[in-house]
Amino acid sequence: MGKKAIEILDLDVDKLIEMLNAALCEEWLAYYQYWIGARLMEGPMRSEIEPELLLHATQELNHAVLVVDRIIQLGGTPVINPADWFKLGRCKYDEPSDPYVEVILEQNLNGERCAIQRYKEIADYTSGKDHTTHQIATAILGEELEHENDIEDWITDIRRMKEEMKKIRL
User: Fold this and answer.
1) Are 151 and 105 in contact (CB under 8 A)?
2) Alpha-helix runs per DSSP H in the chain
3) ∠ at Cα 51 (46, 54), nearest 5°?
4) How far apart are CA 96 and CA 161, in angstroms?
5) In this model, does residue 113 exceed pLDDT 70?
6) Sign of the four-CA dihedral 8, 10, 15, 17
């Protein structure tokens, strides 16, 4: 990023880089959360949900690319040690020790809600001050909101299916 471009930013660039690095850490954790959860998942609707979770994983990886590129443009250094992902990220990785589909989905839902908060904070911080980062944050935020909606819909569908099964048994 050019000197003038950085100069016109009306915010603390170091703070923004710190926020973006935290988001980067969370994207890597989210990527793996989705990817491994999709591979291990068992239960109803697994065959329908698995490819969607893998798509979500790919989108999380794409978010990481956008964030890394912006950190570098701002003159910062992206987090380079995976051990730092757990230290710097607020959105946690939930080990999928229970592969049941609802458990996996709840873990991913928690991660999405945390990511929504993260990108809202970045969008709010950059609004009217750093148009490029603001556009990146709002674009990612839009996808995170879609992910949350997808997951909520799957959980609702599974719960309805279970309720219907109970009625049939009675």
Assistant:
1) yes
2) 3-7, 13-40, 46-73, 83-88, 101-126, 131-169
3) 115
4) 23
5) yes
6) negative
